[in-house]
Amino acid sequence: MEDVHLTEETLAKWLSGTLEHDEVLRLVVPHFLALCPVCRERHAEILRLQKEVGHWDPEIAVVEGRQAPELWARLAGYPYAEQLQELESEDLHTWGLCQLLLQKSREATFSDPARGVELANLALRVVRHLGKAYDPNWVTDLRARCFAHLGNARRVLGELRSAEDAFVKAEGCLVRSSSGNVEVRAEILDLRSSLRRAQRRLDEALDLIDQALSLYREAGQEHGIAKSLLQRAKILEENGDLTGAIDLLRRTTEEIDPVREPQLSAYGRFNLLTALLLAEHYEEAERLLPAIEGPLRIVGQPLDLIRLRWVEGNIHLGRGRRGPAEAAFREAQKEFLERQMGYDAALVSLDLARLYAQEGCVEDLKRLAAEMMPVFQSRDVHREAILALLMFQRACEEERLTVDLVRQLSAYLRRERRGSGL
Fold first, then answer.
1. Global pTM value
2. Any idea which of 197-206, 266-275, 380-389 has the lowest mean pLDDT?
3. What sign results for the dihedral spanned by CA atoms 374, 377, 381, 384?
4. Are residues 352 and 327 in the same domain?
5. What is the DSSP code (8-state) at residue 187?
6. Residue 298 and residue 260 in contact, taking contact as beta carbons nearer than 8 Å
7. Per residue in 316-341, pLDDT tens?
8. CA proximity to 56, closest of 21, 91, 27, 90
């Protein structure tokens, strides 16, 4: 067809070198890509690398994106202090390495937040050295992202004040940048919303996530849109609007493509499952369970499967099955204790106590209380939480523990954990 070919004028300008670069991209490149399947495949790989490396320049994306794993391999074997020293080497001052360090920080944050902090600090060390080869506004945006991911890792670690400081620096970078990069601003608003949620400033958290959602929609960023909607549902849940959270999660999980976004799809359904439990919709939660377990085993972390087992115990408890509920709680409690996760282990123990209280099993409650205190005093449980557990122990000994008191203690521990950022 005539209209798929370049005009003589366009071809002449291209051959003479006077065709504008954006016109080359708009007219010439698509024409040749349409003719050659190999070039189409390579162009798709370039686009993938641009997205992964987070840079608009194809040359930087391809060259530095492929160099970054080799540069990281040079650093990976050193202790953190020596890694910081090694990053003074000029050949390590690349955009690609900085982006890879940010990616690794993001991946480490929820399994090892202390390591997430270190990796974000390494990324900050690199970005400080990025020179004139890169657009200064893009470098400022990258610095903002480094501070935001540092703040997010500190949040998960429980260091809420230093997390706030990091986000203030991230915002300062955004003010100085004139890149107009909508996705960077959306990402930082999204992460800052998580900090506000940990600080229990839920109205602010909701406002920030709505701003992020609006920017992701402006950019047409489907992953960001879905992630923001899941975050919004979590804020609604913690603000006591379980109906709103469940409705939003039902709609959002239906819209997430499990093939293109397997991890987001699995976590969205898991969030729906936990919201249904809080609302005591046990029958619907049980129907949803098989659809979550398989995908979570593929894309989730080991901790996710332990939490799923905990959820399963609560479903059994809600459906009146003592034996399976007790077995699931004991299994989750053991796993959390082995990982030194005192708050989670305490919360599972209180679910187990609720089971015994409902059944009127006084001796089982006393035995559980006797087991709990020595263990939790040596774990990451704060003084206020220990006092709550002492109250639980005394109530068990005096045979006055009720299901309602167990619920109150569980709610208190959950608030205490959020307040500490753990």
1. 0.75
2. 380-389
3. positive
4. no
5. H
6. no
7. 999 999 999 999 999 998 988 887 77
8. 21
